[in-house]
Write a structure and sequence with these properties.
homodimer; alpha+beta; Deoxyribonuclease I, Chain A; 6-stranded mixed beta sheet; about 40% helix; globular
Amino acid sequence: MEGDPTLCLRIFDLNCWAIRYLSKRRQERVRLIGDTLRQDGFDLVLLQEVWSEQDYSDLRVKLAGCYPFSHYFRSGVIGSGLCVFSRFPILDTLLYQYSLNGYPYMLQHGDWFCGKSVGVSVGVTAPLLSLSLQLHAEYCREKDAYLPHRLVQAWELAQFIRHTSKAADVVLLGGDLNMHPEDVGIRLLRGWTGLRDAFAEATRFEGCKNGCTLVPDNCFTDKSELLPFPLGIRIDYILYKAISSFTVKCEELKTTTGPAAGTDIPFSDHEAVMATLHIQRRGQPVGATLGTAGLADVVTEARTEVGVGLRAARRQRYSSGRMAVLALLLLLLQAVAALGTLAGLGAEQPFPKLSFCLLAFLALGVLVLAAGLHLFHTMEVKMLHGTEDQMWMALRALQERP
Amino acid sequence: MEGDPTLCLRIFDLNCWAIRYLSKRRQERVRLIGDTLRQDGFDLVLLQEVWSEQDYSDLRVKLAGCYPFSHYFRSGVIGSGLCVFSRFPILDTLLYQYSLNGYPYMLQHGDWFCGKSVGVSVGVTAPLLSLSLQLHAEYCREKDAYLPHRLVQAWELAQFIRHTSKAADVVLLGGDLNMHPEDVGIRLLRGWTGLRDAFAEATRFEGCKNGCTLVPDNCFTDKSELLPFPLGIRIDYILYKAISSFTVKCEELKTTTGPAAGTDIPFSDHEAVMATLHIQRRGQPVGATLGTAGLADVVTEARTEVGVGLRAARRQRYSSGRMAVLALLLLLLQAVAALGTLAGLGAEQPFPKLSFCLLAFLALGVLVLAAGLHLFHTMEVKMLHGTEDQMWMALRALQERP
């Protein structure tokens, strides 16, 4: 950004909800997104939930003229769904996969299979670090079983940003954080990194009330989910931070409001977020970090939730381990009985062969499943425990800070 | 490091081979390691393969006086085995888990279960970034099936170092890289990060010939593995790099040579590596990075190997998918036959019930296993493909460099 007194950067962020076979009118919407992006000429486009590589390839071909640089982040079974299009060169990319991301056996909540990650692209008029990401979904706000996993992700993300952003001038984060603005995860992420919320900082705002990105007016949203929130909820964010001797100011923030211009359908079940940032050299970045005391409170709150998750994971590890041991015992018992019969010890076979075999296979199945679960929950315990430790170290460092 | 003209830093690195129930004379050796560390007073101790948290706790208690700061990195099913002890405060830690790390069904090669990672500790007379790590083991040098995984790890490690080290003054890496000095993975890591090899740079060296750390003289090493290398091999390294306006010089490098002083056993099956570094302000760091052309060659070589791994992973994904489909077809066929019999279509049951049931359970078992394998290899393909893409991007950037 040398010799450029004010750089105006226009950013587009959208959770595209492009799941093959499942998302309604997917191909039509992807075409629509591509057309709009080509027309509007943003500088940087951060997309999430582009699960099909074919959709990405189609977009890339369509946008090659105005966004010559792009990257698709691959991970997990299905993919990360993240991609970035840019008018400026992307010099380097990096993928960071969260260590915890739901449970493989919760097939109805497909998060585990997506390998949710944060995709980092460096460059775009370097040194600008832009991150596109999505955190674990919240399926039930009242009884949010995934809160500890989402907090581990928010913590890992915050740590990752702290460690990778030091040489950047500006950090930009766009994505579906699956958290309301006042949630502990958002406060942790913002407090620990100093990232600022474009919605809160914008000089002008235009779009859905309160900046909501999941609104009942959108024909694709699940109305029952939004019943407690008649205005909708805000879970998609553009966050930013100036490092070194730059300042960033959000001049304008917009969200889409339902159907795209000239059509009857919106881009996605989420609304798009569009920000215009002014980046200037000189001047110290305005510190938006929470004070040490406020930050310690947030980290303590997050650590308590991670602790709750840790205890739950330990219980599940114990139950699955006990189940595996019981199944193993049953199998051994059957083996002894079978050997006894073979050796002619028993006068006759006491069980019908068919039930005996069925039982053995059932026990084997339970053993394999329970052992798999035990392994999985052991990993979960390690990661939650590790995060709790890291947060404790952070708290200690905060207390020792003058 | 302000106001400190020359800082002398003594580092100890050891793969401890402390696997519960499997490693010979483990407790005795861990005690010995603790005693030596307490006596010798290093500044920074990087240990690998401390698989038991109990061993870490014992070491921590013993070393609390001389190394008041320590951290144990938790990950995977068993743990990462990594820990760090330091005479200076550890300000922050971060764990980066490699996206690929062997196969869960290769139980005899336990790498997958360890969740191999790189543990980063920041601080220790900040800003010094120290990394402790271990890469995937090499089980057969002639037919090294894990080479693509190890290369993905080396690449991720190099990228991780590039992105996290920018604000550090000095980067220090100690660990068991499971690669010979001339291997493509080491050349990739060193070329892409500019890290320098303490053994090659040391003013004085004392220890096993050629700096070997796996030597036939050690009573715990597998002699048959070392047959092609009568002097031993060097796979444990201390690498370092000065950033900003510092210079680092390796004054002395030492390795242990078999039995520890006053005993009949060595610390581990690996030899320990000990370096004395002199860190000085002023002066430009001596560039040890390969020239652009040399670097492009290394990245190309590594990318070719990753491509070989990608094709193998695709084949395995295809075979496991086909196997799952066949098992599913068999199950469906059986279901149709059973329903037919129930509906009284067939005059009599053509198969004995027991074999019928056994076959069904067998098909079900094969289906579950093959589907699991298919998922696993799908993830493997994604990660190898993603790394290949990143390397291609790196090559493009290298070619465009003046």
